[in-house]
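Need tokens for this chain, all 187 residues.
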Amino acid sequence: MKKLERPVVLAGIKHCGKSTLGRLLARRWMVPFLDTDTELEREYFRRAGRNLTCREIYRELGEQEFRRLEAEGIERLAFSRGVWVIALGGGAVNNPFLSLETLQKLGLGVWLDLSPELAYPRVVRRGLPPFLIAAADPEAEFRRICREREPFFRAFAQLRFPITSERPAEENAEELAQIIEQKGTAE
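Here are the structure tokens for all 187 residues:
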């Protein structure tokens, strides 16, 4: 096992496995794991004194203010020094308050590419997020959002890693770690 030289940043659609794989990779390389959604919740608590989930913050602030708060946290990370594994929120790559340059300063960008057909049942199991609840056809809206974000994931990522639902997360993490280590981002 090699030591991680720079941060690894996981991006992908909602419920593609960013947090699960991120924790496994961080454990492998013995570095901290940061989930930008969790960081956003902490920042909201610090500012408002209320402990809310990202979904609740989104509902309370609306999309624009939610994205501003998300961007502030990601910008802080981009200009921090440290080696960690980061999981971005699903919409971070096309956050209008973040530049591609800022996102790429975070570290090695990895797109966890899970098809909307495989992701949507995961979304439904965990409850529809606020941006899908009001949709006449939530599944069609989810697919539309996925298509809209795909070019942003492609532009962000230096590495695309396909995710299939047949493989356990541990196997995906092992394969992804080996690819990253071979790319020279670990010594």
